[in-house]
Structure to design on (824 residues):
């Protein structure tokens, strides 16, 4: 190490005469260049002062940005031009020294670790094992509270929504939907009553209610009673990544997810017919009660939204 | 004491040859021993090549991010508590929204220079990551990652990963309709990890989506944890650079054992400071004139609403593209689901891309068996295989980037979404195999052409007396001939022609 330094110092102790070509500016006409640079810097200074003034009077954001940005830009250009055209043109050279040290140094280093350190452990294996084991155990044990305090365990929460047998379907304002409310072809987003303004209601329970006809509507075998008076309800969470399936193409009777364009056919149980979504949107079984309100027969029969490991 | 006359000159002599600054340095050196190292730091040589500026752009946009970010964090409130907005932006008056969103709207309209700072911060993030990618390409195509610089390559890939993560975290903070949808997608991606996905997602979000923990957590990650790690890594990146010195392109007087260029002080320092001012200035101009992320137009996040054109920032687009075009291949068996349609494009694929980046120096070394030290750079054309491999990867990623706009493309060209989808699938799969041979061919031809990159000179044909025709090449254009001086070591001192002591004069300035 020190050898290299001495060698280096000897080399760089050289001086250069003031008129050495390496120390001359690159510009052919330094006086002119200096004047141009001075002008550039001056513009920069004026703009920076302008920025101060603009800030003082609370000018529009674009004025602030223009004066500050322009000022810094001109100062920067001036400074670079000064360095490039008026400072010593070079080129200069520097030697690299070998980074590697001598074999003796390496051996000494390795010996310190292997013999001095390793020897200590080898002589007292039990102590070494205990210290190592203790620290290792701490590392593992410390992970538990660190991880475990971050959040609750998922348990069954991903398998259920807040829809229950008898839940009223309400819109975002909390108004219960009655059978006469929707014309055929209309759609509304509904929530189980009481959740419409909650995070969970909006993120998990959100459901699209579509009126497909005036008679009971069967979307699939086994769901004969799920679509009373033409009302069918599907989870609004895309089965791809959970974006709300927010666009309804009335003519094609498709629900479209704007995130990655999955399309679900509402007539046949929301089976995806385009895009990356792998599963149909779960359908919510409905009934219309005696007073004409649209209500849920039960919760969804399967987890809503995107896939996960525990899902069957 | 009174009989000692203090003159300017005697004072100057007492100060030593280098005056007050010299004195301060002496004191410092007594305590820290900085003279030798400091001097050699000031003498450090920086190669003059434009491509070395790319890293500087990244560095200075990081500085801009830190500065503007501190400003933003004085006003931004990381809270999902619901408030009713009554601020200066009237279209949102009376709406309920999270405090995070309200504070970002206030930052944009009520805080002096707030909108400028927000837009500068966002532009700086886009420029930062862009500059990192291009800088990384420079290092890759010139082989600057080879021994002894593999560690700095690894740090660089880590920095890029962290920058992308932090960009996503920051983008999420305003809690507007677009960024909220992004968080929702991120949650579902974490959920898709086999075996532990639900646990991971619940731990990151503090429960089921959305909960109220995510904004404060993202905030502290975004403003403290990730930038802190990045700052340390940037420092390590620079320290290695100083220790190992720069690479340089081959050329006259340049060898494996030297560096030719501009010394740190004062020339490079002036240039790079100027550069920092320009990067900051350009970011401010963009912030002033190019609107970015107008969150007040998107509205507050509401999990059951969605805006039509949801698109993430550009550096996340290749993932979005991958998610769009990957087929709906969910795997179900033994009572479990692996959502391959998410896991493969959004977890495994980026893992492979970044894994490949991490592994490249070792892979290349395994193939070429080249274990030598390399301080001189390759020209991309002299390593056709590496260049072609890099171009192939870039081609596939660019196709994925384009695939993130399938809907826009379909609307714009009036073709069906299905056609666009299948075209993009085909393009992504075949583009690397098309790009590789083309890039290989071009680079190897370039390599074989002598004097490539220089202008062709005329062939002068003359007729001799005997009627014979002789062709001779005209000399090269003056501009194409290197006319640099031979490089010289940075001078230890400069001999001036005038003596620097003022000649002794009869008049003494007395100073009390
Ligand atoms: C690694 C560098 C960083 C990147 C890539 C980054 C990126 C971003 C992005 C894209 C946004 C969204 C801006 C918008 O509203 O349009 C953002 C917001 C924000 N960032 Fe950063 N940032 C970085 C570092 C920092 C640091 C160091 C701080 C604070 C010390 C910070 C503080 C903030 C705050 C408070 C917000 C939210 C306010 C707002 O959105 O306007 N950022 N960041
Ligand atoms: S989230 Fe609906 S298609 Fe991706």
């Amino acid at each position: 190490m020190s050898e290299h330094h001495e060698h280096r110092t000897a080399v760089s102790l050289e001086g250069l005469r003031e008129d050495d070509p390496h120390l001359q500016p690159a510009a052919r006409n330094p006086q002119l260049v200096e004047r141009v640079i001075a002008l550039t810097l001056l513009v920069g200074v004026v703009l920076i002062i302008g920025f101060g003034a603009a800030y003082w009077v609370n000018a529009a954001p674009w004025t602030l940005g223009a004066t500050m940005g322009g000022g810094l830009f001109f100062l920067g250009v001036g400074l670079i031009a000064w360095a490039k055209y008026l400072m010593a043109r070079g080129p200069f050279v520097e030697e690299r020294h070998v980074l590697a040290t001598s074999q003796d140094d390496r051996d000494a280093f390795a010996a310190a670790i292997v013999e001095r350190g390793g020897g200590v452990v080898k002589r007292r294996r039990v102590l070494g094992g205990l210290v190592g084991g203790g620290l290792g155990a701490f590392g593992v044990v410390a992970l538990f509270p660190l991880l475990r305090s971050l959040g609750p365990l998922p348990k069954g929460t991903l398998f259920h929504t807040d829809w229950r047998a008898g839940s009223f379907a309400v819109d975002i304002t909390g108004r219960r939907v009655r059978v006469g409310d929707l014309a055929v072809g209309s759609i509304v987003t509904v929530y189980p009553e009481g959740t419409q303004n909650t995070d969970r209601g909006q993120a998990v329970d959100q459901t699209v209610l579509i009126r497909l006809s005036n008679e009971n509507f069967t979307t699939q075998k086994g769901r004969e009673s799920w679509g009373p008076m033409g009302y069918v309800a599907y989870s609004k969470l895309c089965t791809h990544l959970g974006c709300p399936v927010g666009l309804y193409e009335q003519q094609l009777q498709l629900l479209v997810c704007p995130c990655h364009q999955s399309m679900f056919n509402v007539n046949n149980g929301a089976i995806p017919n385009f895009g990356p979504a792998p599963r149909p949107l779960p359908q919510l079984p409905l009934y219309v009660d005696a007073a004409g309100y649209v209500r849920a027969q039960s919760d969804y029969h399967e987890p809503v939204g995107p896939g996960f490991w525990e899902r069957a | 004491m009174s009989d000692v006359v203090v003159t300017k000159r005697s004072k100057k002599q007492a100060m030593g040859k280098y005056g007050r600054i010299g004195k301060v340095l002496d004191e410092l050196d007594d305590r820290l021993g900085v003279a030798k190292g400091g001097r050699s730091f000031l003498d450090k040589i920086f190669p003059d090549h434009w491509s070395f500026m790319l890293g500087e752009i990244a560095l200075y946009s990081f500085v801009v991010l830190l500065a503007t970010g501190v400003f933003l964090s004085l006003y931004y409130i990381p809270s999902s508590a619901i408030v009713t907005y009554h601020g200066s932006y009237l279209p949102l008056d009376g709406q309920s929204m999270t405090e995070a969103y309200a504070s970002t709207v206030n930052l944009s309209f009520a805080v002096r220079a707030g909108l400028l700072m927000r837009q500068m911060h966002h532009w700086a993030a886009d420029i930062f990551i862009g500059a990192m990618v291009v800088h990384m390409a420079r290092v890759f195509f010139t082989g600057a990652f080879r021994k002894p610089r593999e560690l700095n390559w690894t740090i660089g890939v880590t920095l890029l990963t962290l920058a992308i993560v932090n960009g996503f975290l920051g983008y999420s903070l305003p809690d507007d309709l677009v960024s909220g949808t992004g968080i929702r997608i991120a949650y579902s991606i974490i959920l898709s990890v086999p075996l532990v996905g639900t646990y991971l997602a619940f731990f990151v979000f503090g429960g089921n989506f959305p909960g109220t923990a995510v904004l404060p957590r993202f905030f502290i990650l975004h403003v403290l944890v990730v930038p802190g790690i990045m700052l340390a890594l940037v420092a390590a990146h620079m320290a290695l650079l100083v220790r190992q010195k720069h690479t340089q392109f081959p050329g006259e007087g340049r060898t494996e054992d030297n560096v030719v260029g501009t010394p740190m002080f004062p020339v490079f320092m002036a240039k790079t400071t100027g550069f920092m001012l320009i990067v900051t200035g350009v970011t401010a101009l963009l912030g002033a004139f190019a609107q970015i992320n107008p969150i007040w137009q998107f509205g507050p996040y509401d999990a059951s609403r969605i805006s039509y054109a949801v698109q993430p920032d550009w550096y996340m687009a290749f993932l979005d593209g991958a998610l769009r075009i990957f087929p709906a291949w969910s795997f179900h068996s033994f009572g479990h689901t692996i959502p391959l349609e998410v896991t493969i494009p959004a977890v495994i694929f980026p893992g492979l891309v970044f894994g490949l980046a991490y592994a490249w120096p070792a892979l290349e070394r395994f193939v070429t068996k080249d274990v030598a030290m390399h301080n001189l750079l390759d020209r991309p054309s002299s390593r056709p295989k590496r260049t072609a491999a890099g171009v192939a990867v870039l081609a596939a990623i660019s196709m994925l980037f384009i695939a993130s706009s399938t809907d826009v493309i379909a609307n714009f060209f009036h073709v069906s979404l299905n056609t666009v989808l299948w075209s993009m699938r085909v393009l992504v799969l075949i583009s690397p195999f098309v790009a590789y041979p083309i890039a290989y061919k071009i680079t190897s031809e370039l390599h074989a052409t002598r004097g490539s990159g220089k202008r062709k000179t005329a062939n002068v044909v003359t007729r001799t007396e005997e009627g014979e025709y002789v062709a001779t090449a005209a000399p090269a254009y003056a501009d194409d001939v290197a006319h640099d001086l031979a490089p010289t070591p940075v001078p230890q001192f400069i001999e001036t022609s005038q003596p620097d002591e003022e000649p002794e004069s009869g008049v003494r300035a007395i100073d009390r």
About this structure: Residues 160-296 of chain A form a domain with the Rieske Iron-sulfur Protein fold (CATH 2.102.10.10).
